[in-house]
Amino acid sequence: MSLLRLEQFSVWRGRTQVIWDVVLSISPGAVFALEGSNGVGKTTLLEGLAGLHTTKGDLWLRERRLESRGTSGRVVEGISLCPDGRHLFTDMTVWENLLLGSYRAGFAVGKRRAQAMLDAVPWLRDRIRQRAGTLSGGEQQLVAVCRALMSEPVLLLLDAPTSGLAPAFRIQVSDLVRQFIAGGERAVLLADDDEKFVVSIASDRAMLSGGRVVPRS
Q1: Cα separation of 127 and 146, whole Å?
Q2: Which end of the chain is more exposed for a tag (fewer CB within 10 A), N or C?
Q3: Which residue range is the domain that position 193 belongs to?
Q4: Buried b vs exposed e over 87-106: b needs ≥16 C-beta within 10 Å?
């Protein structure tokens, strides 16, 4: 059974169609990588799945149709996006950024999840009272991934998670991804231009070209 299934899935940015008729299936436990040059629509596809753009076609998550659900509804159903550029609240602390990742669950649940995140990612403990804007780029990226995990998704959308990162931080991103899928019930859809990173972590790959999924050569 597929965890994510797309049928004739198209995405628009404003009035411009960017993604055409994608057919895609991702199994539980998979790290699925979208490949392709800059500007082919990888970010738009991930944002469309998260409900940030107008879409057309079928979107199934765990056999539930979600194309009519908005962004918050898709978070509730189990989709979480870690966007390109991190988009942390730089004047807020690491702890506050983490709590925002589970705001729909309420403060008490968010606090428990944040404590569990500190247990899973111990280096966060030394930074929880630090403002996010004072962290290094690599540290900010790790906090962004952890924040995306705070909603306890079943599908994690990762957009350019290793962009500009030093090798040590790329390893830590890899570790977080592997922890996330370890139970075999969740999956990751990844867009990243680092071929070495993609090869090291992806179990499945597809090429996006001209807004369409095409066979890999």
Answers
A1: 13
A2: C
A3: 4-214
A4: ebeeeebbbbbbbebbeebe
